[in-house]
Amino acid sequence: MEWEAQLAEERSREAARTAAVAAEAAQPTVRDVVEQFMAKHMAGKKSAPSIRYRLDRLAAILGNQKIRDVTRQNVIQALERIAEGHRQERETVSGRDIDPGQATVAVRRDAGMGGGFLHRDTDPQGHRREAGETRCRPAPG
């Protein structure tokens, strides 16, 4: 009889361990929660791409952690990392901040061209291209 009790105890411990592993596997990660949120609340909305971009940046930092393990401090630190990286990516051009990923068009009056306009494009790497040129050259400075 004693061995039956011992065997039953081992089986119950194994069942509890199996249940704990299954419960752990069922917990969603931050990335899973982002996907669920986008599917449930943002489907078809105009702002969905911009919200997805921001949540994907957050998920890139916190993505594989279980949602129950993420603290408020973890989220705040991740947001600060994102903000710091965003500040470093910005440049100042003509006294105005721009993101390097945006192409800017600066139009200036050129008196030598009969009062016409000369367009200058800046690509994401900061290279400038004059109107009609196909190659970019590095921006001065």
What would you note in describing this structure?
Strands 3-4-5 form a three-stranded antiparallel sheet, with no helix packed on it. It has a two-stranded antiparallel sheet with strand order 1-2. The chain is built from four helices and five strands. The longest helix has 25 residues. A hairpin with a 5-residue loop joins β4 and β5. About 18% of the residues have low confidence. With 141 residues, it is α+β, with helices and mostly antiparallel strands. It folds into two domains: 88 residues; 37 residues, no CATH class. α2 runs antiparallel to α3 and α3 packs across α4.
Oligomer classification? single chain
Mean pLDDT: 72
Gyration radius, rounded: 28 Å
Question: How far is the N terminus from the C terminus?
Answer: 87 Å
DSSP strand content: 5-15%
Number of helices: 4
Could you say which overall geometry the principal axes of the C-alpha atoms support? Answer: elongated
Largest sheet properties: 3 strands, antiparallel
Which structural class do the helices and strands define?
Answer: alpha+beta
Topology order in helix (H) and strand (E) letters: HHHHEEEEE
Write the layout of secondary structure elements.
Blueprint: H1 2-26, H2 30-41, H3 48-62, H4 72-89, E1 91-93, E2 96-98, E3 104-109, E4 117-122, E5 128-130
Antiparallel strand pairs: 1-2, 3-4, 4-5
Helix pairs in contact: 2-3, 3-4
